[in-house]
Amino acid sequence: MAFTLNVNGASHFIDEEEDIPLLYVLRDTLRLNGAKYGCGVGQCGACTVLRDGVPVRSCVVPAVSLQGREVTTVEGLRAPDGTLHALQRAFLAEQAGQCAYCIPGMILSAAGLLRRKPSPTEADIRTALDANLCRCGSHNRIVRAVQRAAAELAE
Hints:
- The protein is built from five helices and five strands.
- By secondary structure, it is α+β, with helices and mostly antiparallel strands.
- A five-stranded mixed beta sheet has the order 2-1-5-3-4, sandwiched between helices.
- The longest helix has 16 residues, at about 140-155.
- It is globular, with a radius of gyration of 15 Å.
């Protein structure tokens, strides 16, 4: 089935099976490898991307269902000149990633939170990231990174 996807501000013609998950289109067709394959059933958050600014699990969303929607991957958070987004800078500054497998999903879940609540409490952050698994135990650094980014974006 042929369809068009808008990913990171660019339109892409896709010719794939009707039920192919967005994750496979992103990684295999568009070569955007930020979203990771984790569980394959939408429970770990490694594959999180933004659909119209709202976090979704790309491993369970059929790509064709996103026609006419804006998909943002972690690669798409950067400014056109390549400058990292405040969340990306904060995650680096706080050394929030140990193995970093979960980090793209964490960053995009945090981006969705900051979009709807620019000054979140620590509890807000923990709730928003609760469904994103980090097996390395970097949660406290991740929370600090989101707090740092929120403060920077508020300035």
